[in-house]
Design a protein that fits this description.
The chain is of the alpha+beta class and 426 residues long. It has 12 helices and 23 strands. Helix 4 crosses helix 5 and helix 7 packs across helix 8.
Length: 426
């Protein structure tokens, strides 16, 4: 949904300085705005200096786009509620999340604390959409509020993204798993030198174990001394709230909660906390949690609940497990879980198995209605280049599944696509 120019002008409210006084302050005592050209031709960073008597504007904008959209927040000031709704943070017809600017500042402090290798002047390649918490909160606000730099890509393609990584010797990149899958397939990356990278982050969707292994090898083969690190978050706490630490990774884990952020696993919909290793609903509390869903008190009451510990917890609707060291394991969306003959089937687990086969480039598993089982499992597979989508290939994959998947979770069908056909569909 487009953001009107009038709405942009009303973006910040400068009346109350109390929130600013309590908000975490960066070493530079300044916050930043990001200005996006509506034509997608231009992005500009705009700095706002703070004085003791309030905000003092210091703007220097080269406007070549037809309309500019303000899409970041000022330190400690309230974000215009309509703006959050306008940028589609929630499904159509629903109100947006009410988030204060101090939440973004807290996020910036958390991200940097979880990445001690960061230094002032480091560069983030920012290709994630700026209307999304991942793009705005991690890629833009965190970097600019902490003294970093952003390399922006107005028109994203995998080819342009790959080019900018090496052209600007970027130190940090962040993206969704499909982005990293695309980079693996680009011939232009064959001789790329990625030694400048300090952090590679994956979020927005589950990073399969197989894709992580492939991309870690890709990084090693291209002179990077790091591995891809998976995180987890949701709009209700801006974006990421959990990240794999740089010194320790566990297979299948999304990492540890950010500083000052708490996770716990409960029986779904309740406040009954489960022991380590037991699966339940993931709950989150911390300084980046939203205030409410604007004008939706009933939904707010379902999602935000204050427990006996005095903390307000976000009920995520996601299923997961916590181990004895505090590492979190994401199992999947509760709504995506397939129930077949009374058994819980998790699509991501089957996808991990399929993705490990030498024929498979990527896979997707869904549940389809069945009059007897209620739901049955169906798989969609994109094959690696050189493999044909025929009956022989399907038989090979289904036989492989029978060796590694329980009978109740076994796909009844597997639709095959060649990589070229999948690219055409995308």
């Amino acid at each position: 949904m487009p953001i009107s120019a009038a709405l942009c002008c009303a973006f910040c409210k400068n009346g109350d300085t109390g929130a600013s006084a309590k908000a975490p302050v960066s070493p530079y005592n300044r916050s930043f705005f990001i200005v996006q050209g509506a034509s997608a031709a231009l992005y500009h960073a705009v700095m706002l200096e703070h004085s003791g008597n309030g905000a003092k504007e210091a703007l220097h904008v080269h406007a070549e786009a037809q309309m500019l959209h303000i899409v970041a927040v000022e330190l400690g000031l309230l974000v215009d509620l309509q703006l959050i709704a306008a940028v589609d943070l929630r499904p159509a017809g629903q109100a947006g999340a009410d988030i204060v600017g101090s939440v973004f500042v807290a996020l910036g402090q958390q991200v940097i604390a979880a990445n001690p290798m960061f230094r002032v002047g480091d560069k983030m390649l920012a290709a994630m959409p700026l209307f999304h918490g991942f793009g705005l909160g991690v890629c833009i606000h965190t970097m600019l509020s902490q003294g970093g730099r952003c390399i922006l890509i107005p028109r994203f393609t995998a080819q342009t993204y790959a080019k900018q990584i090496t052209k600007y010797h970027c130190n940090f990149i962040a993206g969704v798993p499909t982005l990293y899958e695309a980079l693996l397939r680009l011939p232009s990356m064959d001789n790329a030198d990625l030694s400048s990278l300090k952090g590679v982050f994956s979020g927005g969707d589950s990073l399969s174990i197989e894709l992580k292994k492939k991309f870690d090898k890709f990084l090693y083969d291209h002179n990077a001394k790091i591995q891809i690190r998976e995180g987890f978050g949701l709009t209700e706490c801006v974006t990421a709230s959990c990240l794999t630490p740089p010194h320790m990774a566990k297979e299948g884990s999304i990492g540890l909660p950010f500083p000052d952020t708490y996770y716990k696993i409960v029986e779904p919909g309740t406040d009954k906390e489960l022991p380590y290793g037991e699966e339940g609903e993931i709950l989150i509390a911390g300084p980046t949690v939203m205030m409410e869903y604007v004008n939706h008190p009933e939904e707010t009451a379902q999602t935000l609940r204050t427990h006996a510990d005095g903390l307000t917890w976000v009920y995520t609707g996601d299923l997961g497990v916590m181990d004895e060291q505090g590492f979190i394991y994401f199992r999947g969306r509760a709504k995506r879980m397939i129930i077949s003959s009374g058994y819980n089937v998790y699509p991501s687990q089957i996808e991990n198995i399929l993705d490990a086969h030498e024929y498979v480039q990527m896979s997707c598993v869904i549940g389809v209605p069945d009059p007897y089982k209620m739901q049955k499992v169906k798989a969609f597979v994109v094959l690696r280049p050189g493999f044909e989508a025929n009956d022989e290939t399907k038989k090979e994959l289904l036989d492989y599944c029978r060796q590694h998947i329980a009978k109740y979770a076994m796909p009844y069908d597997c639709l095959l696509y060649t990589s070229d056909a999948a690219d055409d569909r995308i």
